[in-house]
Structures
1.
Amino acid sequence: MTRTSLRRSTLSLLVLAAASILPLSGCFPLMAGGAAVTASVASDRRTTGAIVDDEGIEWKVSDKIARQLGDRVHISVTSYNRIVLLTGEAPREENRALAERLARETENVRDVVNEIQIASPSSLGSRMNDANITAQVKARFVNQSQGAFAPNHVKVVTENGVVYLMGLVTRREADAATQIARTTSGVRKVVRVFEYIPEEEARRLDRQGAEPKAPPKNGP
């Protein structure tokens, strides 16, 4: 079985697992259709293990923060290649520090970038505006005329008008994505949380993601 086939099979199992758990707990977000998930995973530069870990890390850290801090804070947890980005608001410095400690103590977390602001939780209107900015940035990534980078290689998170960009990218790709994000309406600032890789490594990872699926075996 090729690396791509293994990744597709693993994520298919994850989709089924999440679907079976969702009606019971309500803790998992609704996932995209199988075809969309397969296409995204096949071209992802992360390993299958990292993708699986990122999903688990986000859920575990969010659950820990909710249990410890409740509605006193508004903290979003984003994990990419096992690096955790914490964004949002907390009323006290000790709340901010606790959220970071909970994230760092979580299994498989490599590092934590703490961007939590000391402030009251943001309003619903502010969060809706952030969601709109994220959608605009992603749309502009897709519609870029130069094709400087693949849109699914850059993860976009927005908090209070500040756009955070994550991903395994080259310096050239990072610069192109940053330029698009910073010129999007409503964006106050862009923070790069990228992991940088050489151009040769990027091409190697992309070739692996483009490997054709192995043909099915005949017989038992």
Note: The CA atoms of residues 1 and 219 lie 16 Å apart.
2.
Amino acid sequence: MKFFATIPFVLGAALQAVAQVSDAAKAAELVADLKKAPTQVARLNILKNNRDWLFDYNAGVGTVRSAGGNSTLANVANFPALFANGMAMAIGHMAPCGMNSPHTHPRATELLYVVNGEIEAGFIEENGARFVSNTVTQGQGTIFPKGSIHYQVNTGCEPVTFVAALNDEDPGASLIAQRFFGLPPDVVAATLGDVGVKEVVNLATGIPDNFVIGVDRCLQKCNLKRGQQSKNQQQPRVDGNAFPN
């Protein structure tokens, strides 16, 4: 009976996946047409339905989830109306002691607004730049310059929500730990000095997804444990960056 009870759930997940693929294909077709349009009025005529100008942050499109929270990003790939408008926006939710781990947006500056609670946020821009950090509370915002390495930590024992506006319709994201440890293991080992290749492999395979269960000082304060975390965002391995046998 338990097996049969799981069938509707599995079918529902499969149908949702098919629908998301179909929606992504339709969005790609729309963006291709928008690229050919010579004027904004012509683009308006391509996006002829009023709902083409509406993005539902509750629908799960553009949502990434992991142990420490989730975010939903509206960008040109899932919301074609953003084409040529130079912006995207994410809504993020961090669990108690959750952290949006260090990352960059290669094509966009980010302006982050805290809806509730309190977060610790910091960034580093480039070689020679100082580290900038702030405690950002409800109703406050902070900026992460284009290309800077930045992070956010929920330092409280309750969930927090933030809004992130980005000044490119395709801002991109590069997770620092996953991408760095995705380089050839001997290159990473040499970069880290006395760390051996075996240690690099162990570190690389243990990196969790971007919304992680955060820093120890928060976990201790809130009496929480880190527990298991998903590890689906690690760099794929090909001949050039393969682990040694």
Note: The CA atoms of residues 35 and 83 lie 8 Å apart.
3.
Amino acid sequence: MSDQQPGVPQTLEPRVVRLLAPNASPYTYTGTQTYIVGTADLAVIDPGPDDAVHIQAILDALGARPLRAIVITHTHRDHSPGARPLKRATGALIVGCAPLALDDAGLRSDAAFDRDYAPDTILADGDSVGGEGWALTAIATPGHTSNHLCFALSGGTSEEDGALFSGDHVMGWSTSIVSPPDGDMGDYMRSLEKLQARDDRVYYPGHGDPVDNPKRLLRGMIGHRKQREGQILRLLRDEPRTIPDMVGRMYVGIDPRLFPAAERSVLAHLIDLRSRGLAIERGETWHVVDAA
């Protein structure tokens, strides 16, 4: 994907075209992937940020074909805000995940959420939206965010079907950030296992290249998270530790700009361990729970 340029449509298969938004960063890789699904009438999955250049690139790619639905996997600001100007330009309905209801208690990690997201139709697990020769079925995959949905493509031939638009739950370049209080490591692991039980042929993620062997990647992702959990437990068995101390020992050599995300991920693991009775928090220090 290194040759992909923002705003230039790329046909991945007959019913799937992708556009790269111009929002590259340490957290978005080369940028957010917007997908156009269908041939005669269309859906747009994750129109990305509210960026006039990117919205115009989507409109140019649509041409004269009608847009039936603007489909949203989750409400981070690099995925959903573009839905509003795209709806104004086309009249298409916004469908997909629920708005994210957040309280104000405690340390928040919601600075990147799109608080103005207002779908016309909320899709629950198993609900579908479709057009001529295509259908997108919602698969609830909480974890990265509590409202995250993936979408399975069907409505074509058996050879054409089997693609999954995996949003940020499974990406083609990195594991997802799981940031409490909305991100939940237990939910994230259960969602990975839910996808592993499926038989999709390819994933089209919100960031990074298509995933041609989803089951292999999922095995690796689940194994990676279990390894991180094991690292945390080993460090805590040595002595009680703070989260920054654990991150410094676990994430050697990563881009320092990613340290805050790493700290949130370690916190998500610790909260999950606490819920399972394996760790306990005392002030800013975490301790392992003695099984004896």
Note: The chain has a mean pLDDT of 92.
